[in-house]
Amino acid sequence: MSEELDHIQPGERVGPYRIVRGFRGRGGMGRVFEVEVREKYRQPGLPRRLALKVAREEYEAALVAEADFLSRFDHPHVVHIFPLPGRHRPVYAAREQFPFGWGWYYAMEMLDGGSLERRLTRPTTITHILRPPPEAQHPLNLLEALGIARQLAAALEHIHGQSVVNLDVKPSNVLFRRRRFRYLRGSVPQAVLCDFGISRDLRYPRAGLLGVATPEYVSPEQALELARHPQRVDARSDLFSLGIVLYEMLTGQLPFENIGRVADIEYAPPPLRQVRPSVPRPLEEIVMRALAKDPAYRFQTAAEMRAALEQVPAPPDWGAAARWTFAGVTLAASLAGGGWLCRGGWLSRNVLPPPPPSSPTSLPVTATAIPTPIVTLPPTDTLAPVQKSTSTPAPTRTPTNTPRPRTPTPASGG
Fold it and tell me: Do domains 8-110 and 112-123+133-327 have the same CATH topology?
């Protein structure tokens, strides 16, 4: 089936979408492609790029059921599905003619922040060709492992509230959402639970083709069901799988090497602190309780397990503190440098005009420049000294050249 899905090439149209590229990972019943919404179908609130899951027609029941499950969920740690644009009512799955024949598809959000499996294996240049051996896996630090476990427990609490069990909780089905300004955010990424291809509604169990989970992450009751032994599988099966994922995040290795160890009621994995002594004892107790072979000894609900994880003290986020400190120092240096440039540095000498001379009266600046009259002063030696006086100054007498009248002189008499 996967070979036939490989015939879907970039540029082909699938309903309201255009294929951009195909992802290398293949699911049990379909394949995921990155698509772009065609221009005539773009709507406000609908992202340009989405992830399209395509399956052959014989998997119609499974894909339609998965789309129905996703349409019930509304949680930040569960993948979000989008209705097909251009329809009068919300439709999430549709049928389309492909090169291999008729198939079904639905569109969900694009998660491009990598997967938990990729974080555990620390990929190299050949990761996409060869799966790294178990010894190449690396444990996460306590802060990341505890934060991701809390998010996944909250996601399971939400889907269980909708009467849905995932039955395929594993690192490759945990993707990370790329966040804005992630440099200044905490060191714990935002985990998103994906792939509900073999999920079930506990009220209406699916009949017929159910699909097969990854053996290393199944619960004992799932393992017995695969062996044709009737078992009641409920929400506690997801909690067992989450315990396996948390054990792997903290130690870098799986608690059960194969499905036989999972189904063996007598086998118990090594205690967590025996493999990694730095793990807090309360966290070890949570993980080992989730891995109990008998469902009655596990956490009975995801809410109960999430509450227990919340009680474990989280280590300090030194990485985020260092990033905030660096950002603060950089901002302070930028502001200080900008102030020096404006006050007396390069900017004031090369860009800013010289400041105007101070005057007792501030005049409004007008668009028209008024020429300043030039006053010529007489030489300083001809100026009379100015006498200071507190009385009212007398009027100034201006000398004139008007000749004074001559006084008549009486004539002398004889």
Answer: no
Contact assessment for residue 107 and residue 71, using Cβ atoms and an 8 Å cutoff: no
Phi, psi of 332 (to 5 degrees): -65, -40
Q: Annotate 396-409 with DSSP letters as a single string.
A: PPPP--PPPPPPP-
Q: Which CATH architecture has domain 8-110?
A: 2-Layer Sandwich (3.30)
Q: Give the Cα separation of 393 and 378 in Å (integer).
A: 23
What is the tens place of the pLDDT at every residue in 363-408?
444 444 445 555 445 554 444 444 444 445 555 555 555 555 555 5
Domain assignments of the chain as residue spans, ordered by start: 8-110, 112-123+133-327
Contacts of residue 357, defined as CB under 8 A and 6 or more positions apart, other chains included, come to none
For the beta carbon of residue 105, count every other beta carbon within 10 angstroms.
Answer: 22
Architecture of the structural domain at 112-123+133-327:
Orthogonal Bundle (1.10)
Torsion over CA: 132, 133, 135, 138 (sign): positive
Distances (CA, A) of 85 to 96, 229, 311, 361: 15, 44, 44, 67
CB 65 within 8 Å of CB 206 = yes
